[in-house]
Amino acid sequence: MSRIYFNDVVCRDGFQIEPNFIPTEDKIKLVDELSQCGFAKIEVTSFTSPKAIPMLRDAEEVMGKIKRVPGVEYTVLVPNLRGAERAFESRADEFNLVMSTSETHNLANLRMGREKSFFGLAKVIQYVDGKVPINVSLSTAFGCPMEGDVPQEVVEDYVQRFADLGVRGVTICDTTGMANPAQVSKMAESLQKRFTNLQLTLHFHNTRGMGLANLLAAVQSGITRFDGSLGGLGGCPYAPGASGNISSEDAIHMLDEMGYDTGINIPRLLQLARELPMIVRHDVPGQIAKAGLSCDLHPAPAYVDDLRK
Amino acid sequence: MSRIYFNDVVCRDGFQIEPNFIPTEDKIKLVDELSQCGFAKIEVTSFTSPKAIPMLRDAEEVMGKIKRVPGVEYTVLVPNLRGAERAFESRADEFNLVMSTSETHNLANLRMGREKSFFGLAKVIQYVDGKVPINVSLSTAFGCPMEGDVPQEVVEDYVQRFADLGVRGVTICDTTGMANPAQVSKMAESLQKRFTNLQLTLHFHNTRGMGLANLLAAVQSGITRFDGSLGGLGGCPYAPGASGNISSEDAIHMLDEMGYDTGINIPRLLQLARELPMIVRHDVPGQIAKAGLSCDLHPAPAYVDDLRK
Fold this sequence. Notes:
The structure is a homodimer of 309-residue chains. With 309 residues, chain A is of the alpha/beta class. In chain A, 42% of the residues lie in helices and 14% in strands. The first copy, chain A, has helices spanning 10-14, 24-37, 59-65, 81-89, 103-110, 114-128, 152-164, 181-194, 211-220, 248-257, 266-280, 288-291, 303-308; strands at 5-8, 41-46, 73-77, 94-100, 134-139, 169-173, 199-203, 225-228. In chain A, strands 1-2-3-4-5-6-7-8 form an 8-stranded parallel barrel, surrounded by 7 helices. The interface between A and B is large, with 61 and 61 residues.
């Protein structure tokens, strides 16, 4: 039974765009509960400027108070050298660097061009100097909502350049849910062939309903690492009302039903997903929290017994 | 480029469980607009007793007033001999018969056991006598929300028995969204091998988020005919709050993006999906109506131009 590894990103990627501040103790509790569910990795927070993302201004406190479970990697977003210093101090297990493969998206999101981002991140990698494993998340790798197509060669070029700098892994992100399964298979096969020593993770959004189909295509192509977000939180400012990240519980439930080993305690994860709307104070897109697991049975209506006689 | 054929079931399967009566003229207009989108088949209504399903009490009027487009098949649900008489009078292109492969679900839904349903439908088939093509929709073929697993042999046995009676096609229905892609592949491959002369259609629900992943698995296994419901309308009383049928527009958009020929005018379909909430007076689950097509571009924020300089 193949093993699939999940990284839950709700506490960083999910919470980051939430309108109401989530109390620090709720964040710590959620990370601890995710640890108990059996996630391989948890993206805990971001060492961005507290002014830029007030929601994650408690990064140090959260990292200092979570209960670290052996076998779970606690990763953090590191935007620059200052972030790397803070991440070192907080003893993160992995630093996750981010840039876009689309020039316009990088300008819109990070307020600088791709080359400036690349060289900034290269400095972070040099500074970290192999002391902590580094992952790079490449945004809009399957298309940019402002530019349209992002050629696969452009994505592969950035993967190559970061691989040359010695990063451990790269996450290929479908930031606004533009990927389709055929495109995913093509990308996944090519990257695995070319970068045999790199940890490859795929990050899908369900903006256009294709999230789990893309996950399936990636699994069929041999990818074993995925990002997911509890409840499907996290979204896309270009598609208000649409879903965001694929829901961890929906994705994991599907793979479990197919016979994959996700390492996750699914009833526990489902319970957590059902508590999430209370934490964020609104409904969330995840489906199995509403519908139950495929194996959850319902009683037959009372008249069925009479009819049977 | 492979051709995929879609049957939109919103006017029957979707509307059937809507709480507010949808005016007859809205139904007629919607069928006519679906015809213009290029659907291969449209399930227009049901010739059930008007008392049992008041929503579809206008079946004759709808069938009498729609504008039939050559190349589009107008199918209707036929529950019994009386329904078949009415369907003949209304000149339906296909009669769609329904029963469950789970005993408990058949009792709950049709208030009789499976064998009684089978022999009732056999009488309808005999009465129709080849004058109109017949399709049989087999419910809960991937699992029953009350019994749990439905063995594939049981499903195949019913397919065999209906094939022996000379039906043209069979629709394998995941009535409450319990199917997973591995199960779908196994079912699709086995049925296609065994029933080479039967028109096979798959009908998925997105109750647990797996709808388009299941569609992908079926397409990969060679299935070319699918049911979908505009907006993802139609649902499952056992999963309140969860999605119902796969959304025609989301499914068709995905296959189109992958390079399949769906025969559908997608911008026109998207427009129709965006009008649907006005017809049913509530939000609907379909995603691309909210998010737009993958190829719909958005303007970059104004500061991007300044940054570029």
